Structures are given as structure tokens and as C-alpha cells.
Amino acid sequence: MIDSEKIGKVLYGGDYNPEQWPEEVWEEDMRLFKLAGIDIVTLNVFSWAALQPDENTYCFDKLDKIMNLVTENGLKVCLATSTGAHPAWMAHRHPDILRTEFNGMKRKFGGRHNSCPNSPTFQLYSVRLAKKLAERYKGYDNLVAWHVGNEYGGECYCENCEAAFRVWLKQKYGTLEALNKAWNTAFWGHTFYDWEEIVVPNLLSEHFEEDRTMFQGISLDYRRFNSDSLLKCYEAEAAAIRSVIPDAQITTNLMGFYKSLDYQKWADSMDFISWDNYPANEDPYARMAMNHDLMRGIKGGKPFVLMEQTPSVTNWLAYNALKRPDVMRLWSYQAMAHGADAVMFFQMRRSIGACEKYHGAVIDHVGHENTRVFREIQAMGKELEVLGDETLGARGAAKIALLADWDNWWSVEYSAGPSRDLKYLDELFLYYRALEEQNFQVDIIGMKDDFSKYQVVLAPILYMTKGTVDEKIRKFVQEGGTFLTTFFSGMVEEHDLVVTGGYPGRLRDILGIWVEESDALPSQAANHFSYKGTEYPAVLLCDLMHLEGAESESFYQEDFYAGMPVWTKHHFGKGNAVYVGTRSNLEFYKRFLRDLCEENGISPALETAEGVEVTERLKEGKSILFVLNHTEEAQSVRLEKTRKDLLTGEVLPEGTELFLAKKDVKILKEL
Amino acid sequence: MIDSEKIGKVLYGGDYNPEQWPEEVWEEDMRLFKLAGIDIVTLNVFSWAALQPDENTYCFDKLDKIMNLVTENGLKVCLATSTGAHPAWMAHRHPDILRTEFNGMKRKFGGRHNSCPNSPTFQLYSVRLAKKLAERYKGYDNLVAWHVGNEYGGECYCENCEAAFRVWLKQKYGTLEALNKAWNTAFWGHTFYDWEEIVVPNLLSEHFEEDRTMFQGISLDYRRFNSDSLLKCYEAEAAAIRSVIPDAQITTNLMGFYKSLDYQKWADSMDFISWDNYPANEDPYARMAMNHDLMRGIKGGKPFVLMEQTPSVTNWLAYNALKRPDVMRLWSYQAMAHGADAVMFFQMRRSIGACEKYHGAVIDHVGHENTRVFREIQAMGKELEVLGDETLGARGAAKIALLADWDNWWSVEYSAGPSRDLKYLDELFLYYRALEEQNFQVDIIGMKDDFSKYQVVLAPILYMTKGTVDEKIRKFVQEGGTFLTTFFSGMVEEHDLVVTGGYPGRLRDILGIWVEESDALPSQAANHFSYKGTEYPAVLLCDLMHLEGAESESFYQEDFYAGMPVWTKHHFGKGNAVYVGTRSNLEFYKRFLRDLCEENGISPALETAEGVEVTERLKEGKSILFVLNHTEEAQSVRLEKTRKDLLTGEVLPEGTELFLAKKDVKILKEL
Amino acid sequence: MIDSEKIGKVLYGGDYNPEQWPEEVWEEDMRLFKLAGIDIVTLNVFSWAALQPDENTYCFDKLDKIMNLVTENGLKVCLATSTGAHPAWMAHRHPDILRTEFNGMKRKFGGRHNSCPNSPTFQLYSVRLAKKLAERYKGYDNLVAWHVGNEYGGECYCENCEAAFRVWLKQKYGTLEALNKAWNTAFWGHTFYDWEEIVVPNLLSEHFEEDRTMFQGISLDYRRFNSDSLLKCYEAEAAAIRSVIPDAQITTNLMGFYKSLDYQKWADSMDFISWDNYPANEDPYARMAMNHDLMRGIKGGKPFVLMEQTPSVTNWLAYNALKRPDVMRLWSYQAMAHGADAVMFFQMRRSIGACEKYHGAVIDHVGHENTRVFREIQAMGKELEVLGDETLGARGAAKIALLADWDNWWSVEYSAGPSRDLKYLDELFLYYRALEEQNFQVDIIGMKDDFSKYQVVLAPILYMTKGTVDEKIRKFVQEGGTFLTTFFSGMVEEHDLVVTGGYPGRLRDILGIWVEESDALPSQAANHFSYKGTEYPAVLLCDLMHLEGAESESFYQEDFYAGMPVWTKHHFGKGNAVYVGTRSNLEFYKRFLRDLCEENGISPALETAEGVEVTERLKEGKSILFVLNHTEEAQSVRLEKTRKDLLTGEVLPEGTELFLAKKDVKILKEL
Question: Is the pTM for the entire model greater than 0.95?
């Protein structure tokens, strides 16, 4: 994160595009920013065409003016490299920069995030522009962060990508023998004798739908390659900036659980994480929380920047309802509750043309401050000034980790069988939500992270056991940890080849079970089982498993596998390995995981009514509780110790019954 | 319209394709036409391939025979130029004539309406053929009308269109600076430095769905350009005919509210309007009425030709139900009730091969006259002879105008936000239907038409205020008119750029309101309000508005904007400006508009039971009422003055309780 | 079929792909095969890339090893030619082998069944490989059958196909005049003046959806051409094998009612029929039965091979439920009940990579025999040894034939109008199911088959009366047969041109009716009629017909055609012609057809409870009953004569009440 000592308070601002407006509007913007307590702007996100009108000409005059204006007005700057959309002339003269779609059609100029990552033209000019920007603006002290590209994403299937894919494969596999083995090309006689025979996996080759492939190994490698290709673009620009400004703080705006990019790999190349949070009004708050926790988790728990959110409406949903009063504030604090040290908006002034003109903004089309939305933004700005640096740099202290892994996400959803309803995030979210809605603190970690910091590691649908992750799990349990996984786990190794010898493969000894078969249930069907006296449904998949050391208390009640165990627990070394062989409902997970936490001595941050979220962050050894009332009614919570209300300054003694209006927030620091 | 004095009665006939049949069938056709009272045939609609077997050969022998045959049999002729489908050899030798689809794929030969409007080949040969036809058949006195092309429509995205689009843009904008400003290309850095950089907006460039674009300005201009391109094809053929026959009556068959072509612009180039009416059996009758009124309205109220309708079934619906007994007659008279002076069918004899062989026809596959359908056609033919010229040339005298505008249609449905359920025609139809089902006479007019003829002008969803239309509205209201518009109005000017300074933009002073925000409701959700003691739903969009001179009696009952006005009325000059800030149901519109009409002293043509439609036309100062019973039961109406039944000759004194069997029709002329 | 005297028992085995496994696994496979009673394996299905690494090199070493291994282990072999998927190098170096999709996109390498049938490369190398295999392995006595290609199917629309289509058309039509007439190209002016002007009918030319075409004649011919093209590939390989091994038994695995290929034409070129049966668990058993009966019927009743079925799960359904216990056995015997002399699985050992790794197998990923699935396979293997040759070569003796015809299937579903819900197989299945679920024995025959063997011929939706089939029907009825057809019959001749003069065309005199019109009902709507005191619905289409000699007892009860006949019977010569002018429900068909059978003195094989299927086969004059309990409950049947239980050897006297557990099977031979 941008160094919290330097910034002194939660940064507050957003994307500012003065180049869409005549200069006479700029001064009015400055007045309104001041009024709203704005202290940072992201500039230059989509200015490539303006900055570089042809191959050899660069024109920074307007950007200079803008930089000087905001600097004079005391604003900090997050400077974008502007490579999120290439200029029309570049596409016209150098069509290699255009992407080819999944269906094999070459694109023409249009849209944004439109550059082929393996285009020589893109690689040349994007890096050159980043360097020129660094050289020109390195002297600005208020330039606190660099924003490379914008919302990297998508895929390309062009000939340059095809060629680069072959190079990537050569580096990965060394020989065609290794590749043929990894992809199991003996199946359907797909053996490759020459690297040139390999083509991109898309609708014209191995796919018959976006997520339906005939060769999982090829498609999976293409996902990895595509994520790496885009990452290389990011890294090349970042390196160019760093070559000029060695201590530059560089980021790009991520998008939470975004499937196309392996953010856990990207995080290594980013100085701090920033991301764009665009929930729908009706999303459960745990959904946003899970995204925040992922964004914090991929950088080892470091605070992040909420780079974009809308002050009021979005424009791209089917029904773009208004954010209700106080919701913008509530969700801003929720970001901070999960680790944000900056709260920023898209956009500062609402565009008048093209597809985002009905997206919410700090300054609406009416142009003045007398709007509901501006008043809410202004009030929040004042509060953040009051709050100062109290929460900056705080860290979490979760004892529970949830394992998330892009290779697993990709491979589970490429799988042909057992059920098309099997979605990686659905499973993760069921477990996460059950914990989050009970105020258990959770870190979302990757396979490479340290498990030993946690008492409980949950790895729902750990389909692919990459590398030696089974060793790591084995050690974690043996040394006393509690590990949980589910159906469709341990099936394959890293090339999506089945681990033979009985499911769940390399996890079998740890879990003490053998899964003989797995029954896929149609979407409305259910089996049932009982847990601690209550009956729960078993849906989606029902594993037919045999105990090999594990124990169980719940058994299927119906069908020919009635009496077989539904979930199991295996005492292994000093710890426990738990396996849940089916999907149940949220009520089951809440009960089951609460029991699991209790067994491990883990308590919620605070006991609250449903819909009141509490997270705990630690700063210099002191606990800060964020209490967020997501409900439509007033709520109260009872303080477990004496705390100070950071927004009012009031000291609240232990046992205080603290009242929260609907959508209200409290930030409570341990004294 | 074809001169009513010359034709003497409502023309009755249809598309006749003898070229699909051996000559021995033709004589039988003549016998059956006579039996059915047919007096006009449309010939030569799809004969290009027959007339021109290669670049330089033309062969009119068979057409000569056909022309002579129908002439000898006393039939009038509407002669088509046959350019609605190009020959296979032309596509093979000159592929520039083939269209490119929205997804970028170049088409091969097939189908119809298949020529690229910017194809040099098409332009050359279509015009040459039209001229040759005019030269050859100019001497036929019975050739009463020319039918250019056929059902013009669709779009092309080929390279010739791309080049022509650039030329069109140059003519429109003059400079790239003006174009960049109009399209707001500073957004996402789309600035164009050279005209050659501009590409067609389709799935490969700015669109991600047919109606979802990233640059509204570009996509909107392409719609205008495409409509103009096809219009130029029509005009070029028309000019060729006129160069030979200066007083030729030239038309092409339109399709009612057809989105791709701006018929208000086309109408200027057409001598009379003709159109094809293909409702589904379950369509509300007001839907057909609205199409008829549009077709009459685009040519300033002049009578039109019903060029095509099916005598019984269509073949292209999912379920092609039979037209029930008497429905063909009912709908034919409905066309006349709304301004038709000719009633024609597709097709005279049912084809035996290809995709329209199960489309209804006057002469069925069985080949004789002993069918239900033929008997109905024959009876109608007799009636039209009885009717004579009584209704020819009659005009409407509506005091209410409904504003329809293609630019608004296009731009509303390209809008990204606020709601995907926002459909231009849906809103128009709600207002139209509420009036039509109460027998209020409505004209459908365009922005360029004279408002001063009307007491009430309704302009639902007047999203785009082009040119000085606001001035025209301002003057209309100031001088005593009543103007109504709705949510999502006044938002943008003609390039789809938002009018800043507060919604509804240039209409704000006229309406006396400020719309601060607009809440999009999910498809099943509703707010509510009360009007004159009854509660109505508010759905789709709820405007949050402030009164600035206007008044209101209805207020939202729920949500955080409860108490804000739902609709407003502003006394402005001598008139009133009404704003309806949400969508409600048909019951509300019926009540609300009836009240509005009453305030303006406007009465229905006749008070009837639900489902009995009445329109009024005036001929030489006399009122003609068309009474149409669309219900499944017998109905009666009470005559408000003495009238003559034009189909029976009976004189009906004022106060007569006139009985109509189910699906029956009366045409009643003021004495 | 493979000669039943040579094989001695029902063959039992499946697809075996040892090339996917290291050799150390092979010996274990042999042990497990022996354990399971496996006696045949299909080898080499997807080994083209392995056998031919480049244009001129062939490498049979591994296949030699495999052949020797299975031979030494006493297994019979069905040897595939391996041309179901071409090598990657071939696609890379000779792209003509790649198909072009229906949307016009050229494919890249990937998938299987991927070769263009008109590719010179494919034609050259596929035939050469087949011949080399024959030469190399002709000496193996255990090589009992040849398996050419694999699941032939799909379409190609490339330039080579386009050129070949023109040649095919020239051979069929001789002149363009004949072609223009057959396709009715005068419609929409599609006249062709040169063969080169003809293009493939796809999304870029005459189609707007897969099954929606603007020229039925062209699209229909392309289906015929495509089926013929693939058949020529099969025939060329078969000829190559036969040139080396004159008495080779050659087949390819068909897929039941597979729309793209006219299997009735294919059957002539196949020595015996084999097919792959992949029902979903929830399919009615009559659906599978109908496929089996088709497969038996296309080869005149000869026994066939069940080439593939899954032992447990499939992997490509949305929800891949496990086959319940005993279902694999039940369905295996059902195949035999309908004519199979071999029961085979896909696959012997479960793959570890690519898209079929979760498809069921004899040997699961766990690798040992201790699984539910293996135990069931093993038990079935034992039973088949007990059964020996008792059922081999048995034939059916149905008195009822159901007419199925690919040209009808294709043309009905290309029809534009009257209803999109009109599906050829749906209608066939309604009639078939009504008979099958009452244990009436049915043969499924083609238009060329002998009708005189049957007492009843059912031809639902005989839309197209090809050639002189009406003569054949006329003669069949005149000589005493009962013929039944339905709505939408007799409409067109073989080019899909309507037979004028009154529906149902050439069948009109036989049926003694005239169908004047046909009303298409929306999906939820129904008319009603009464049959023998019970009311039934009339849905989909309601014919409005006039009696011309026929009689009726059921009449529409609603709408304007109330009182018109619903179905008719015409005494014609010594027989009867029945016409059913609407679709009703299964209950109606069961009652109606049972009555029809009774009138013809036809009885069910056995009277049973619902869900108990009985088929009868005859061997050397003795009746063999297969009794299959498809229900979830125990059932009993009463024997109508003394029979021997072939699986237990027990003799069961006439009148025995025979008990069957749920999913159980009895095979009962007349003594």
C-alpha cells in the first residue's frame, strides 16, 4: 500500500477525466473537490490517443496543465499509464494490436482493454509511453502511485498469441514427449510431432462452448499462458517506470474474483493491491467481503486501495437501481473493515457521451453540489478527516484460512462431468459466507502461503493437488491443524491428469477415506442426512465413500447408497482432516463450521444479530472493530470491552449496548 | 396515393407470380381473379434473374406475355422493379453485391433483400433494370403504380459500406474535430486522426450485442447512414423510372414500425405510402391500428395502400394459426378505417416450393375456388364493388398527435442504463393504446410536422431533443397547447450527448421540474401512487423530481423517495406541460388521458363497449365512421347522428341501436 | 452380424485403449478381463497419429504388441481403422482435411470426427491406412470384425464440399433446368445459370438458423449429399479392407436415430449393424427400444452388435447420475431383447486425461476389481457364459411396421410452417411408445422395405411421398393391409415441392379425405374430441378435413371447425386406411392402436403391468421371451405356455406366476 505514514489519512478521491471537458470546467471541479474532502485523483486512464497522435509524436501539454492544476490544489495523484485502450490510428496502421476472439474472428478498432498482449506493436509503444510518463512526471511529490493499464482482462487467440503459446509451452515442457504426456494426447490420437502443430484452444479447435473443452490440459495451459501474457505487459510497463523512479509505488486495478487472471501470481509483481468493487444492490454483503478478503489475501494481508466504486448507480446492469441513502458510506467502510486504506470512486465528473454517461459520479450532469449523492460524499469526506490515521496500516489476525486457487477454479469448470452446476466459487462462497455471517475472521490464501499461521484451513473442492501441496497439508494436520475439503477433491495433479489408485488421490491417507463413486443429482433433486438432530439436504454431488480410518456421524438417508457416510473426520497426527462428501445448505455450513471453530477454540469477532457484520483489525497491538449494519432496521451490539468510537471520539465502556441506525457504521478502537 | 378519381373504387388484389407456374395455369388464374373481384395485381417482384440472365442480356418476353394477359383481363398493374433479390450469377461474378453481417462474416448467395446498398454492382444494375422496365412498359395505361425493390431492410457492414460511411461522415461533420466532439471520443481515448481510422460499429468493434454499443454516437450515425444508404438505392431507381415516365406513381412496401429505416425521411421520396401488415392473431388490434396510423402519418395523412396481408395463415410464426372466419374482412376494413384506399394480398397463388409455400394465398394448392378462404375473399370483393368510391381519399381530423421519431427509438435502445426493459415502442404503445381503445382519434407525427394543428401532443420518452424541437414545443404550449412527455426525456441532443445543467435538459423550463435521479426497478418490482382515489403501480423507472413551477397530485408511496411527485402539470404560457415520471399500467393511462382529453374538449369518435373500434374519416366535409367489432361476441353501438350504412345502403336515424355480429364491420356515412 | 456359429455365445467386451497406458498395466488388464468374462475388445479406435507419424512413415510396432497380447489371452478383436480423428501433423500440413462449420468458419485442429469427407488428403490417407491394417492383420483368426472410422457424423461446408456438391447435383439432375425446377428457383428469383453459382446452404447463404432455411430443396439435397459423402468415406475404407480380406465383416458404430446420416442407405454397405447406446437415466425405456428396433430394422431384422454403452456414468450430460444397481444388466438384456448378439462397453479402462476421463469404464481409476461396477460386470459376464448360444441369431416376427424415413425427417423439420413444435421423431415416438408399452412387437422399416409381411403399417407424418411409395401403399391396402398416417402427410414429392390438387396429395384417394386447412395451435392450447366415451385433447395441429369416402367417429368439440372429423377410416380395397388429423396424448394412442391391433388380430407378446417390457424373438421356430422389469418395484407375469428360464435352466410350466425383482430380467424359451 501507499505508505500510510506519508498519507496520514484514508485517501479519498477517484478517477478524474478533465480531458473530456473544456478548461473552464476544471476550476469548478477543484472547488467541488475541496468541498467534498477529496484528496487524491487518478489521472490519465484513457489518454493514449491524446498523448501519442502518431508513431513518433508525443504531446504532454494538456496533461502537464492538469498535473499542475491538481498539484496547485493540493491533490495527490495516482497516475495511469493510459495503455488500457490503444489509439485508433495504431489499430489502423498496426492491426497486430487487435485481438482475435474466442470464435476466431479478428477484431477491428473499438472498445477498451482491446490490445493483444503478444502484439509487438503494443509491447513497443506501451512500454515507451510508460517510460516517457515516468521521465516527465518523476518530480511531482504528490504523485503517490502509478496505475498501469486498466482492469486487465480478457483473452486473445490471434496468430501472435499462438506463436507465443508455443514458446511458453517449450519453456514449460522442454520436449514434446513431456507435453504429449501432460496433455494425454494418446487420447483421441492428438499426439503432436512438431510444436507448430499446436493451435490455440478455442471454438475452432478444442472447444464447443466457452467452458467446454475436449482437452482440459491444453485449455488449462492456455488460461495460464494468457494470464502470464497480460502479466508480462504489466511487468514491462512497471519495469519501465521503475527504471526511472526506483521507489515508485506501482499497481493496477484488479477486479476481485476475476476468473481470467491468476491474481495470486500477479500480486508478486505489484507494490500494492488496488481493486474495483461493483456489486449489485442485491448482492449479499458476504459476497463483497469475500472479494475484499481475497484482495487483502493475495498480498499477504497488506492494506489495499479501493480504486473504484460508484457513488450511486452503475449503468451496465439490466436494472440500474440507485444506491440507497447511506449505502455508499456503509460499503466504503466495509472496504476499510476488510483492509482498505483508500476509498475512491469512478468517476469524479459524469461523462456526457458514450457508454458510461449514465454511470454515477461525484459531480452529476447537473453540475452543482446540491444533490443527494454529493451531500453523502461530502459528509463521508468530513468523517474521514475526523478519522485521520487511526485505521491506516491495520492488519487482520484470522485463525481460519480459506484456500483459493485459480488452477483449481479453471480446471473444475473445464471438467466434463460430473455436473454442470459445479462451480468453484459457489462452493467457496458457501463456506466463506457461513463463517463471515457469523463474524468469524477469515483470510483467503493461496497454495504457496504459510498454513502454519492458522488453526483451520478450509479447501472446498480442492480438485487439483498441485506440486507438493498434499505434503504441506499432511504436515499441517500432523502438527495439529484442522483441514477440511469436500467432494471432487484430490482428483487430478497439475496437468489435470487423474491421480489413479482411488479418490481423493493424494489426500486419501490424510482424510482416511476412499470415494468409490460420485452421484450427480439433477438440479431439483436432493438426498438427506442428519447432523446433531437436524435434517439437512444433500445436493449437487453425493460421494459414495468408504471409511479407512475416518469416522462419521451423518449418513445418506435415501437411494441405494443410504447408510453411507456424508462427511467424515479423520484424526491424523495431532490434527484432524474433515471431508464433506456433498453440498448442503447455508444453515448446515453455519452450524457445522461453528462447531468446528469451537473445537479449535476460535470465536467470532463479536456476536451480533443477523445482517450486522463485524471485522477486527489490529494496529500496534490494539483491536479495532468495524461494526456494519447491513439491515434495513436499527440494531444494537454489546461491547465486550471498553472501546473508543473513532468517528465521534466517545469512549464506550465494556457492556455498552451500542445502537446503530439502519445502514450505520461504528469503528471502535480498544483503549 | 394512386389518384382516387382514376381508380373509382378500393383497389383489390395482390402479389401475383405467374413465372412460378406453367402458362396453362394463367388462364385459370384469370377466371378465379374475376370470380373474386380482383382488379389489381403486383407483378415482377422477384424476377431479376429471369429478366437479366447475364451482364448484358435482358429478356422481357415472359413479362410481356404476363402484362398483356392481365391487361386483356382488365386488371390494373403495380409493377415491381424486381431488385429485392439479386441473381445468383451476379453474386458469383460480383461478390461486392453480397452483404457482410453484423458479426463481420461475408455472406454468400442466398435469401432475398440481400444486396449491399453501397455495392457498385447493385447500384449499376438495379438502376439500369428499373429504367429498362419503365421504357418497355410506359405505354400501359393500366400500369397504375411502380413498386421499387421490396421490403427494404437490414444492414450491411462490408468494406464498401465502411468507405461510404466515411464519406457520409465527412459530409455531415466536415472536420474530424467536429466528429470527435460529437462522438465524445475523448472518452476511452477513441480520438480519430484520420477518416480511414473509422470502422463500422459491429460485433467486431464497438458492439457486444446487437443493441449494446460502447459508443452510442458512432452506432447511431451508422443507423442513420444505413437507412440513408438504402433510401439512396430506392431514390436512384425511382429517378430512373421518372426520367422515362415523369408522372409515375412510385412506392415501395414499408413495414409499419420497422426499426432499421427512418420512414419519416423515406416518405419524402415516395409518391404514396404502401405497406405490409402481418400481425399475429393474438396481437391487440391497437397494435395494428398504430402501424396504420404511422403509415398514414409519415405522408401527412394521405391515404395509403395496404400492399400485403395474408388471406389466411402466415408461415414464419412459431405457431401459424388460421385467421378465423371474418377476420380477413375485419382487418381489411380496419386498414381502410385508418386510411387505406387499396386492400391487397400476398399472394394470389400459393407457391409449391421454398420457404413461403405454406403462406396463405387467394388460390390455395388445391387450385379451385371451393375453399373457405376463397369464399371470404370473393364476398369481400363483392362488398368493395358495392362500396365504390365512397371512402376514397377521405382524411382524418385528429386533435391529438403522438410524436414518433426514429433517432429517439435508436438512441433510447442503445442507451447503456438505466434499464434494459426500456423499449421505445412499448412506451409509445401504452399511450397510443389507451387512446385508441377509447376511440380517440390520433395522428402519429414526426418532429418536423406542424404541431399547431393539434390541441394535444404526446411525446413519451422524448429522450433526444433534436435541433430546435424544444423551441417548437415551447411555442406550442405557450400558445395554448397541451404537451406531455415522460421519464428519460430531454436527456441528450442529437449526437446523444447529455444536455448538462439538470434533467430534462432543454425541456426543463417548459415542464417546470428538475429530475435529480432516476431509480430503475427490477422487472417484478413496483412502487405505487394514487390518482383520483385509485392506486396505480409505478414500474420500470421512477424519477426523483423537484417541482420548479409545476404542480402534482400524485406521489410515490414507498421507498426513500416516498412523497416525491409521480407526474406533474405546468401551466406555461396559455397551455400546459405534463410530465409522467414513471411507467404505470394501461388502466392508469386510460383514465389519465381521458381526463386530459376532456380538459381539452376532445371526445371519442363514439362511445363503445371494449373491443369495438371506431375511427372517423372525413370526405368532402362529411364524416364516415368505421365501426369494427374485434370481440368474439355480438355488440351494439348507438348512433349519435343519422347515417347511411355504406355496405347495405340503409339509412339509420340518430339514436339507432346498431347491431354488429362478432367480427362484423359497419361503415356509416353522415348524410 | 458376426457369424453366430463362429462366436458361440453373446460377445462381451468393449473399447480398449492400451496405448494410453504403460505396458506394465496391460497384463493387469488381461487378468481383470478374464475375471469379468470379457471375450472381445475393440482396438485401435484413435491411433492414426500413432500409426502414421508423417506422410510416408507407418509404425505398427505397438499395435502388433497389443494384438499379440490380446490374442494370447484368448480375446477376439474388433479392429478399428482409426480414421475417426486425423493426426495433428496432417491438419497442419494439409488444411483441406479440416472442416468448415455451418457458420462458415474454417476449423483448426482439434476434437475428433473432424475430417472433411471431401478432403483429398483424408480420402488418400484414410484408405491407405485401412488397407495397410488389413494387410498386416489379415492373418489373425481372432479378428472377427472391422470397425471403420467411428461414429460418423456432422457436416462440412468447405470449398471442397461445395465443389463436390455441384458434381453430386450434376449427377442427380443432369441439367440446370431440371435443378431449377426441382428447387423451384423461380421463387425469389434464384435461377441458376451455371453450376458454379450454387453455394453450400448454411448460415451465410440460405439458412438463418440450423433448421431454418429459405430454400428447402437446396438444404434437403445438401443433407443427402453430406450423408452420401460420409458414406463414401466409409465405403472406400471398407473396399480397401475387402480387397485384402474378401470375407471381412465390416461395420461402423451407428447412433440410433441420428439425424445427419441416412442409415437406411448406409445399411446396404455394412456387413452388420453396430451401434452406441447412451440413454440418460430418465429416458423412457421405449426410447431405447425404438433405437434398438431401428438398428435391427435397417438391416432387415438381422441381429446387431451393441458396440458401446457405459457401465456406469457418462460424463457429457448436464447431470451425470450413476446407473443404479442392476440397470447396466437390464439395459444390456434389453439390447439383446431387441436383437443384439453382442454386448460391449465404452470403455475398458478409464482414461486419466482429456474430456472422457469421467466417463464410466469396466476398470475404474482405482485400478482394481473391488468396485460395485466391476462386480456387476463380472456377474453379467458369468450369466452370458451360462446363456451360451441360446439367443444368437434369433429373429423377430412383428406384424406391425412403423415407417421411418430420413428424407421425411429432414424435410418436416426444414418446413417453414405450420408449427415449430412439429418434430418428426416426436410423432413417431408417440405411436411407437403406445405399442411398445403394451408389448406389441414392432419393426421399424423404410420406404423400400417389403410392406406385405405386415398386417399394419404406421406412417405418422408421412410428409413426403417419395417416388412411387403411394403405389406401394395403395397396393398394400387394396390387398387387405391396414395403413395409418397423420396430419402433414402427402404434402410434397421428393424435392419438397407441394403436390397440388388437395391434401394429402397422392394419398388422398387411399385415405378418402380432403384436408382443406390445418390450424396450428400454440404450445399450451388444445381442442378436444371424444373416442369411445373418453375425451382426449387435440394439440399441435388440427386438420380441417372433408370426408370423401372415409368415415369417422370423433369430431372436434371447439372452435369454428367444431364438428369436423378428427380421425378417419377408409375401407379401400380389402383393407383400411386410417388418418389421424391431430396430435393427442399417449393414452389416446394406446387405446386407439390397441383397438386397431385387435381388429387385425394382433396380440401383445405378453400382458404385463406397466413398466414391464416383453419382446419376443424366434430361433429355429421356438419363441424366446425377454421379460424386463424397468420399474422400481417387484413385478410378476403369468406364463402363457411352458417355458425354460435360460439364465437358471429352470422349466416353468404354463400358468406360472413368475416373479421379477426390481430391474430383473427373465429370458424364457419355449420348450
Answer: yes
